[in-house]
Design goal:
- The chain is α+β, with helices and mostly antiparallel strands.
- It has a domain of about 100 residues: Dimeric alpha+beta barrel (Alpha-Beta Plaits).
- The chain is built from six helices and four strands; from the N terminus they run ααβαββααβα.
- Strands 2-3-1-4 form a four-stranded antiparallel sheet.
- It starts with a helix and ends in a 5-residue tail after the last helix.
- Pfam families: YCII.
- Keywords: Signal.
- Belongs to the YciI family.
Length: about 160
């Protein structure tokens, strides 16, 4: 009985070891993809992060605020369709910095990112303000967007 358990355990360990080794295999480098994404030799590139903060304007009219948020979402969609924005989303809880959400723009130019964020109706109305930061991340980041529609039944 002990021999049978030992052999079963040995087979299990060998199987797990093989599975782990297989997972560790490095994906084959794809120069065409790296070039198309603007990747450096490390597979990285520069982006610009915009942190949306609570603005100075408080709008009590729910219909007006609803229209501004609809315009905000439409603007995000347009920027994503144009390949200018690769990540956008709200923070799910309050924080001491009053950050409300963030964008990661597909540009290393803070000036260009600022032009794009200034088009947002909620920014224009003063509901949101913003801070801009240069950022260095995976050049593959924009690839997740093409799959988002496959997993989303709708937009908020």
């Amino acid at each position: 009985m002990k021999l049978k358990i030992y052999l079963s355990l040995s087979v299990l360990i060998a199987t797990l070891s093989f599975a782990q080794e297989k997972k560790k295999e490095k994906a084959k480098f794809n120069q065409e993809l790296a070039t198309s994404l603007g990747a450096d030799p490390y597979g990285m590139k520069a982006y610009t992060i915009v942190m949306l903060t609570t603005g100075a304007t408080k709008i009590e009219d729910k219909a007006k605020m609803g229209d501004l948020m609809k315009g905000h979402m439409t603007n995000i969609g347009k920027l994503a369709d144009e390949g200018k924005i690769v990540v956008a989303g709200p923070f799910l809880e309050k924080n001491k910095e009053n950050y409300r959400g963030m964008f990661i723009f597909n540009t290393k130019s803070k000036e260009e990112a600022e032009q794009w964020v200034k088009r947002d109706p909620a920014v224009q109305a003063g509901v949101f303000s913003y801070e801009i930061f240069p950022w260095y991340g995976s050049a593959a980041l924009p690839l997740y967007l093409k799959h988002h529609d496959e997993i989303s039944k709708g937009n908020p």
